[in-house]
Structures are given as C-alpha cells and as structure tokens.
Amino acid sequence: MNRRLRMGMIGGGAGAFIGPVHRFAAELDREIELVAGVFSSDAGRSLASAADYKIDPARAYPDLATMFASEAKREDGIDFVTIASPNHHHLPAARAALAAGVAVMSDKPMTASLAEARELAELIAQAGRPYALTYTYSGYPLVREARARVAAGAIGTVRKVVVEYRQGWLAGAADGKQAEWRVDPARAGAGGCIGDIGVHAFQLAEFVTGLKVTRLLADLAAVVPGRALDDDCSILLRFENGARGVLLASQIEVGELNGLRIRIYGDQGGLVWRQETPNELILHRIDGGTEIVRAGTAQIGPDAQARTRTPGGHPEGYLEAFANLYRDFAAVLRGAAAPLLPGIADGLRSMAFVETAVTASRDDAGWVDLIGEGATQ
Amino acid sequence: MNRRLRMGMIGGGAGAFIGPVHRFAAELDREIELVAGVFSSDAGRSLASAADYKIDPARAYPDLATMFASEAKREDGIDFVTIASPNHHHLPAARAALAAGVAVMSDKPMTASLAEARELAELIAQAGRPYALTYTYSGYPLVREARARVAAGAIGTVRKVVVEYRQGWLAGAADGKQAEWRVDPARAGAGGCIGDIGVHAFQLAEFVTGLKVTRLLADLAAVVPGRALDDDCSILLRFENGARGVLLASQIEVGELNGLRIRIYGDQGGLVWRQETPNELILHRIDGGTEIVRAGTAQIGPDAQARTRTPGGHPEGYLEAFANLYRDFAAVLRGAAAPLLPGIADGLRSMAFVETAVTASRDDAGWVDLIGEGATQ
Amino acid sequence: MNRRLRMGMIGGGAGAFIGPVHRFAAELDREIELVAGVFSSDAGRSLASAADYKIDPARAYPDLATMFASEAKREDGIDFVTIASPNHHHLPAARAALAAGVAVMSDKPMTASLAEARELAELIAQAGRPYALTYTYSGYPLVREARARVAAGAIGTVRKVVVEYRQGWLAGAADGKQAEWRVDPARAGAGGCIGDIGVHAFQLAEFVTGLKVTRLLADLAAVVPGRALDDDCSILLRFENGARGVLLASQIEVGELNGLRIRIYGDQGGLVWRQETPNELILHRIDGGTEIVRAGTAQIGPDAQARTRTPGGHPEGYLEAFANLYRDFAAVLRGAAAPLLPGIADGLRSMAFVETAVTASRDDAGWVDLIGEGATQ
Amino acid sequence: MNRRLRMGMIGGGAGAFIGPVHRFAAELDREIELVAGVFSSDAGRSLASAADYKIDPARAYPDLATMFASEAKREDGIDFVTIASPNHHHLPAARAALAAGVAVMSDKPMTASLAEARELAELIAQAGRPYALTYTYSGYPLVREARARVAAGAIGTVRKVVVEYRQGWLAGAADGKQAEWRVDPARAGAGGCIGDIGVHAFQLAEFVTGLKVTRLLADLAAVVPGRALDDDCSILLRFENGARGVLLASQIEVGELNGLRIRIYGDQGGLVWRQETPNELILHRIDGGTEIVRAGTAQIGPDAQARTRTPGGHPEGYLEAFANLYRDFAAVLRGAAAPLLPGIADGLRSMAFVETAVTASRDDAGWVDLIGEGATQ
C-alpha cells in the first residue's frame, strides 16, 4: 500500500488550535492526507471547516454515524480517524470508529475517566485495529535520544526525576474556545491542569526513564477564584526502582508559555531537556563534564536522527515532533512496528495517574499506590 | 480558485536536503501540492524520486522540455515550478518555465552570476508571471516583527548593523552531495560561502532595516587548503542612510551549525534576533530596559502573528518559516499582494552583492560601490 | 567610629571553603578587617592559619576562652566574631562571644537544632549585641530588587512560589573536609541537605515574597546508600496568604553545581531569578510582555543599585553578595539600621523549618503546621 | 617578605569607577593593602578620598612628588603604585614612580601614544622595577583555561578569530565623569573606543591564541554627532600563522553592557568565551560534539583552578578576575614569576595596534602591517 493514507478528523473545527496541528502533522511526511471529517458537533460549522481544510465539502459530515457510513461506501474511504475533540468525546468517537473498523489516532487524554479508558481498551482489543495517542512530546527527536541514552546507561541508575509543565495562560479568566472546555468538568473530565498537561509530563517521565511510576502524593488546587478544576498541581512520585520524582504542572504561572522540562539524575550522570529549546539535550557526567547534544550532529543516535528532517541548526519544533507520531502511526497502518508510539498502555497509565492524583488530593490521602500498581490492587 | 495550487519541482531528488524542505514548506498550509517534477538531470533518478515524494511516476519527468510540454496538455497541470537545483541551473530552469508560461519559485541565489540575473529579470518582466526567491529567513515571524518594529521607530535611526551567518560543516573536506557542488565554481558560481549563505545575511540585513547597502569592503578567502571558492567572508558595509554594517559569513567555524544572527542598533534602541532561537527577539531601549518579545504572545504585531501557527511556547522553526514564503507565493498566484515576499529586486541586489564582493576582494579594492549603486554606475 | 571594624573568626581554618569567603566578603568594602581567630579546634592548625590569613600569629588562638580573654585586654580588640565552624559549634561559639560582649555574625543554620536556636535567641536578647546570619543569597542585588518589585506589586498578589536548590556534589561518596561533616548528624544536626541548602531556599522564598510559610509537607530521603542524613528533599509549602509553594533541594543531582533558583507567580505577573546568572531578573507581565532586568542599568532601584559595585555587564557574584551582608552588618555595628540583614527571626524560622520538615518526613505526617505557626502551637 | 605589600594609588578618587575596583582587586587576596595615594590632581579632592578609602589622611597626598618623597622616608612606605588616572597621565605617573624606585601596576592603555609607550618601555628597562598592566580580562580563570586548551591543541591549528567588545553606554551624549575624558583626545589619546576597549579585545585575542597580529585593516568612526574620537570600530586582522581575524568594538550599541566575547576556530574545533557569563567556556569538536567547560569542576586545568576562589556554581566575576592580576603582580614583587601577567610587551603591542588602526582608518589605507611587524619596519 504505497498510496497516502486517508484521514478523517473528529473535532478540530474553526477556532480550534489542535485540529490544524493534527492536519499539519499528519500530512508533513506525505504519508497521510486529510480527506474527511466531523469537525464540529454543529453540522453547519463542520461544513464550514471544509473550506478551511480545503477538503471536499461533501466529506465534511454532520455527525459520526454519517461519516462512517458514507466513508465505508467509498473506494477511497478513510483509513483512520483522528480524534481532536474535547476529552468527553474521546470515548464515543473512538467507539464509533472502532465499530466501523476504522483505526484511531486520538488526542490525549485517552478518555474523560479511567473507567472509560478501561472500556475503550477492551473495545480496542476486540476491534483489533491500530490505536495511538498523540503524546506529542515523545515525538521530539531529542526526547528519543534522551530515552536511548538513559537506556544505554549514560547516567547510570536513575535516582531522581523532576518533570515540570509550566503554563500561564489560565492565570486569568478562562476565556475563549481553547480555555472554556478545559475548565469545565463536564467536558474535560475530573482533571483540569492535570488532565490537560500533567499527563504529558507523566508520560514523558515514564517514556524517557523507561520506568513506571508506582506511588504518588498529590496536591492539586484551583488557584483562580471560581474555577471548578485544578489549575496547579504538585505531585511527588516514586518509580518502580525506588527512584524519587517530582511532577509540577501549572496553568497559572504568568509568563510561562509551554514550559515542559525534564531532568533525570542517575548515579553516574544527569540529563536535561526543555521543550522550548527542543533541539538540544544537556548531559552531565559525574566527572564534572557537561555535553550539549545537538540535533543534526553526528552525536545523535539513529532513532533520533531518523526523526530529524533538516541539518543541524535549522530549528525543528512542535509540528515536526507531532509529525513523528503520525509517521510512526502510518508505519503501523502499513503493517510495521513502531514500539515507541504511545498507545493503550500509555493511555491507561495516564488515566490511572489522573484518577489517582485527583482522588488522593481531594482526600488529602498522602502517599498512595497508582491505581493498578501496588500490592493492594 | 480555491483548489490547491499545483507545484512541479526542478531538482531536489534523492540525497538533496532542500527538495524535501520545499515540499514540506509548500504543502504545510494545504495551499499547494507537489504533483510533478524533474528531480534530477539523470532521468532514472528523477523517476526514482516519484516514490520518495509519493507522486504519480508518470509525472516524474526526464527533462524540463518534457515536463513543461506534458503538463501543459493536462487539465490539472502545474501552476508553478520550484527550482531546487544547484545555482548554475537556476537561469535555464527559470527560462524554460517562463517560456512555458509557468510561474517560478526559486532557491537563492537568483542565478550563478549577476549577468544571468539581469537576463532573468528581463525574462520575468516579459513573461509577466509571478517569480519569487526563497530567502527563507525573511519568512520567520519574528523577522517580520523585527522589521515592523524598526519601521515603527522602536530603535530610532539605524546606525549600526551586525549580521553573521556562521557554519562549520565545510571546515573539513567537502564530501557528500550537499557539499560538493557548493565548492565547485562550475556549479555554484563565482561565490562559495558568500553565494550560499552570505546572500542570506545580506538580504536579511536589508529586509529588517528597510535600508539598502550602497558600499562595501570585502575580504573573502578559501581557508581550507585546495578549495577553489571562498569559505570565509568578512565584509564591511555602508547603508544608504550612512549606517555602518558588518557582515560575517563562514563555513569553517567548527561547531557552528546554522548561526544566522542579526543585531541592529539605532540611536534609541537595539534589536537582536538569532535563527537558532527564532521565537524570540531581544529589544533594548536606550533607558536601559530590555524586553524579550516572544512568538505567540500578545506583544506580537498582526503580520508576525498571522505567520505563527501554534500558541506561544510551541517552537516553530525553519520549515514553518519556509512555509510562510510559500503562503505568500500562493497568495500572489491567487492574485493577492505579498509585498514582503522576496523577488526580483532581492535577487538582483544579492547577485550584485556577490559580484561586487568577489571582485573587490580579489582585487583588494578597498571600499567600493555596490554594483548598481553609487555615482559611478 | 570611622576606623575599620575588627573581626575574629571561629573556624574557617585550612581546607575550609567558607572561612576565606568570610574574609573576602568582610573586607571587600574596607569596613572590616580580620585580625584574630580560633580557626580550628586543633590549636596547631589554628596557629597555622595565621599565615594563610596573614594575621598576627599571636592572635591565632587555641580556643575560644583564650581569644575572648586576650582580645578583651587589647585596645584594638575584636569588635565581633564570625562563626564559620560546623553547625554543632554555632551555639557554643555564639554563647562564648555574647558572654564576652562581642557581636556575632554566624553561618547559617543558626544552630544544630531548634531548641538550641531558641536558647541562643534568648542569649542574644539578654546580651543586646548585634547578631546576624549569612543567608548569603539575600545579599545579591537582584534578590533585593526582586523583593522590592514584589513589594511594589509588580506581579500582583503572590499565588505560587517554586524555589529550588540543586547540587550534585554529594551524589557519590562524601569525601573531603567539606563533605564529611555535612553528612554526619553529630556535626550537622538533624538535617543534611535541608539544613545545608534547604534553609537557604526557605529563607530566600520568605525574603523575596515577604510572606511567611505556615504549613508544609516534607519528603526527605538519603538517596546515597549508607548515608545517615537526607540528601534530597521535596517539600510542599503554604504561605500565610494561602499561596502555594514547592521547595526542592538536592545534593545528588549530578551536574548541578549551585542551582538556587526562585520563581514567583502572582495574579499580575511572574518573576524568575537564578543564582548562577545572578545579574539578571526575568519579569513577566500578564499582558504577555517579558522584561530582563539587568544589574547596573537604570532599571534597577536604589537599594539594589547601592549594593552593586561595578557598571552593568561587569559580572558580580557570590563574594559581592556575601560582602553586602557584611556591609549591612558593619552598618549595624556603627549604629545604623539594616532591616534586610538576616538575623534572629530568620534563624529561628529556618530552624523551625528544618525541624518541622525532618520530623514530618520521618513520621510521614502529611501536611503539618510549621512549628511556631498555626492554631495548635 | 610575608607582610602585605603596600600600594599607593594615582587617580581613582571620588566618582571614579576604576579606583575602587583597583582597591577591591588588590586587597582581595590579602597580599596587598592600599595605604596611600594621589587620588586626584586637585589636592582637596585627593584628601577627601582618604575617608572613602579609609586610609590615613596624612597619606592622601596633593601631588606625585610629595607622595614619593614622603613615602620614601617611611619605614612602611609604599611598595608600588597603581595608576588609575586617565590615559594622558599614565606616562608621567609611571615616570615619577620609576624615578622613585617604585614598581608600577598601570591601567591600560600603557600611555596615550605609541611614542610615549616606547619611552616608558625604556624607562622601565632602566629602572628594573616590576611593571604590569591591568588587561583585566586575561585574569578570568576560563580565559586562562581557554589559552591552555588552545595551546594544548584542543582546536587544532587556529584559522579564525572573532573578538567583539560591545558597549552601548556612549550611544547618547557622553555625560558624567566616566564618559567625558574618554571622548576627549587631550585626555584619552588618539583612540576613543579603540583605546578604551578595542585594546582589551586585541590583547585577549593574542593572549588566548598565543599568536601575534601582524596586519590589519581598520574602519573607525565617530558615530555620535559631534564626537571627536571613534566610538565604533570594525577591524580585520591577520595573525602571524595566517589565521584570519575580525575585531569589533563599539560603544554605541544600545543595550550592550560589557559584551566582550571571543570565538576561536581551528581545523579541529572551536572555542567560545563570553565575559558576561565568564564561568563557562564552550568547546566544539569537529566530530560534532560540544562541551560546556564550567569553572570549579574537575574539567578545569590547574592554572585556572588556582585562580578560582569558590566551588563551581558560585559565580565569580570581574573583581575576582581583576584580583587575579594583582595576585600575579604580588608574586612578582615577592620575586616569583608570573609569565601570564600582562606587561610591557602587551602594552607596546596594544599601543602599536591603536596607532596603526587610527592611522590606517584615517588614511583609508586598506591592509597595513601592524607597526613593528612586517618587512617594512
């Protein structure tokens, strides 16, 4: 199957940030093209999005049922859907796709609750169709490099992880389409900041270290007056090997834009990566030496090198990282393996993380096992 | 004309860096799609590139004549070509396109010599078809912002410009497809480093200041033993308003990747932009205050904002900057204006810059008028 | 009293890091000179230090009693002592000085335990002699500037504080004079990392915000096998106005040198200072603007300006910050006020912090009131 | 001679920036103490400075003759003088000191002209007393480290040097004591910016590379209207081994504080040091690797290590660098060698540099030999 894979989009209509990002990312490598979608739950707005996306208006559908039915009849029907709608739509959208035999690429979090996630995991297992989650940051070449270096022992045994995701855009009133649903429990789920960005930090920490979080202590709060969901999260972690962790996520830190950063310290070295300067990795050795590992140089291993599109010094960023996930997903659809592509396991773990943290914080429960981990589960 | 514009590519086949970049950039906004090409002067390699680019093999042509003839017969024939071949091909490729009534987007430099550039300028004028040049760096949102700020008087009257373009990849032997032609006068033209990257620095300086360079003093050298073309350039500049300038370009500075940086100082402030951290601009005021202007914040003016695709903190880079030029070019093809899109004037001035500098350096001529400027021209 | 003030030193003999630092700092402004000392509990080593410090060997005393007795008899006897010995010496040294009517400048922490600190506080009150603590980081000009900006409302109401103190030098075995006593409960007290550097972070957070910590949740651990005292601390904080805080201190983060950093976020802005680049302050405004406030520019307020010794761009660092505390202390000895000089209150609060955190962590007590704060005290 | 060496100061009275800096630097290591001075050509102001410096008023002399005569009669008379007055005083002050048999530490430049410098060099030779120049930046530990690394072949054969010294404080009118004399040819000499800061850049380039500049091409200008001396300098260099160089110095770059930076590229690597972040050195290898060499780590060689006073991460800066020169000078006075301490040769070369550049620029002479270098000398 050498043709371009055909993507339908669910959500992502006018005013959305993430819809166009999915389109850019999916199409960047010419493996995939956007051909159809239900871009909004409002049929008129879905239709209007056809022009924005420059697709055939006949394929901008009013609802999921119509899309899956219509596309199934076409010879050139969609191969998969991308789910870019708010969190509470993730389960019904994925369910409809899987029922239609269509593969699914979904925005994180997997669903609006852990129970939903478990339900979806079963549906996926039954359907036997590819399913992946856009934990975008794991698509950055130097995140892959960091993972490879840790796995190769560059910093020795991991002892300490500090992962932060700092934003400030919800420090004031949550106006605008991007903000509104994120602070509404009915649409976002039980987690606010933790579900929106905390899960990215969580997934990144497990991804780079190759270690699972087993316990946590969570302190979540809604700092902005009147807010129903958390907008500031401080969480202490323990990893399966005993390593200590700190996960900080906030959306009220004025001036922070998208400050995802991870520091990992082992008994032989340390490693630092920052999303806002994504093309370099700092590597400390216990002998006092410090190396800047830069994208596009001969210092980069093959996995990260293959996910870099330009020579060193030509900055690549968020869209390219996102596109790396779609490249992996396209490979899967074509029958290849993409072991680092986030999927069901990441989804379930992230939802368990959110649910554990939200519950533990609400109950002021101190240290608790991550749901699904620990002797008591 | 709401359909996607159809692009043919000239050059950019297997092993090329810049071909895929053109494709990414052209298609990013879904205004354009790559449908055809003569990807190599070797017919077999051109055909082989069809698979890489996922286009119809029937449209991977063996030569320009065949492409233009065949495409002209199609209802869905190409709207324009992108020229991504080495410098000495630029003129013949553009000539063939214009003769076929096809618009042209071309890699810089415009041609291999100023005489060729002048010839091409006339052809373009006669053909009346859109023509643009991928001076990529002028596509960065914060370069647009910098230009707007200077124009609005943020730093007062410009007094001093320092523009640097630092690379180190040609510090050793020039191996590999990317390097070989760049150090060969028959393919690159009379300028080596100056034609490859010096012109970017020159265009950027004129673009951001809105001022023309009128005189220069050039010191070019081939530092690596056995090299025929310059790989290190130090050039002093004078601008039309009397402002002083320094342009440094080098390809032998080990460790520098793609270090294009510009600093502009006026009587009221200063401004710094660096391509390797492109999403911020430093703005100094004469009162001692210093501001970091960051992409995606409310501090950014409308022109730059419109060329940013993601919220602040989601790094955008080289491909997105490149895509901004294609977006402008698509607008022109659709009949709109895009006054900041580099074109003939930039091309001619850059070629005059190269020719002036190469000649002046060879003759150790001291300060000379830029060809086309000054009383003696 | 226009003469230079005369300082005696306790501890700080050969091999110590902090002894010479006290000497540099005390003498920098020529307000003070080192003239005497008990540089070691070993009389021979104390005497040997006279040469290192270039003081009269007759004034390098074998013990405290001899020093205070001998100096009291001199016309040019010491005006104050600096205590630079390990923590468990702080109380006896200060007691001896106060008994001799001599003022005291002491290394932090105030003592080895809170009980000792309270005892010392009473002795100071009785003695009526000046007493100050070298919480060095509060001496940095831009820390003073940060405090002034927060107080003036630059970031609005403080909501969130993240203060980190990252080091890596104890990631391996704790060899050498500097390391040994710090990991020994008999000499360091109940806190390891928390008493050595955590208290600096605590004091800095209260100093810059002007807010008191009232509650905390502590997770301390000895990460390096075999270590008796904590070397890694994660502590959640609540401030008196309800603001949330995170305090991270570690001595096992390989590659971190002396990474003290503070971020403070309010409802109108944010502020960042990093000790390793101490001459700038980042100030974020809620309108998306970001300013770099640089030492030595006209943007700096009078208090910070007065504590800067060179023009902007001439880096000042740790010794100058330390010297600013001595300048304040000299002012106090001469009868002036120095309201920002850390003293008894900072000492007591820091000891309460250590004791609360060590106890709460050991008992896994969750959130607890800071000893001395809260309704239950 | 284990006693502290006794320093007299010439110039450096009230309002001066550099006088107190000399005092801080001289006394930091307790090798030296300031005891006397002619702090101003105005006797009353000289006397008034005694209080500022806390020295015996009887030793704040009205003129040089009185100082040298009076001090010669004392048992505890001065061992050397520091010359901190404007450039045109350097020769007469040094002459008087040498005539009195007193050693000299002098501000750069050596004198106000090359002819004067040659006269002084002869006087020094005759007097046989130590003489040194405060080319402060060569006292930074990581500048010493850079020199040692280059000498050890870390970057291979030097091919290219870019040294910049950027300031902005003279972008407006030159008000205030610091500025006035620097723009006055009668006091500063023939060079403005070039004599004030350009010589630092020149000395640094020769110091770190270990190579002599043999030819140059200079373009100096007075950018600010009405200014008599240059305030902006662009100079191309050739080194004795054929390496190419660029030296940029400016005092009109608004927002630049004290931006001295050097980049050196060889055939095997590259090296970058910046005065404003002086505690790290960037080292590029031709294999694409980049190392950050940080002060106070085990990566630092013995010479730089010995000039660092605190552990890594405790920023040291300008005063400590300056003090390193005084430490070397004290060693020389005590009979030891200090081969890296700048002295007569640096002074003569710098003056030749200024004179060559000023003359060549005025005459628009193109490439010229550095006076004293080349076949024609």
Automatic annotation (TrEMBL), chains A, B, C, D:
Q: Which residues form the Gfo/Idh/MocA-like oxidoreductase N-terminal domain?
A: 6-132
Q: Which residues form the GFO/IDH/MocA-like oxidoreductase domain?
A: 143-271
Molecular functions per Gene Ontology: nucleotide binding
Q: Which InterPro entries match?
A: Gfo/Idh/MocA-like_OxRdtase_N, Gfo/Idh/MocA_oxidoreduct, GFO_IDH_MocA-like_dom, NAD(P)-bd_dom_sf
Q: Which SUPFAM superfamilies match?
A: Glyceraldehyde-3-phosphate dehydrogenase-like, C-terminal domain, NAD(P)-binding Rossmann-fold domains
Enumerate the Pfam families for this protein.
Answer: GFO_IDH_MocA (PF01408), GFO_IDH_MocA_C3 (PF22725)
In terms of PANTHER family, this protein maps to: CONSERVED EXPRESSED OXIDOREDUCTASE (EUROFUNG), OXIDOREDUCTASE
Q: What is the protein name stated in its UniProt record?
A: Putative dehydrogenase
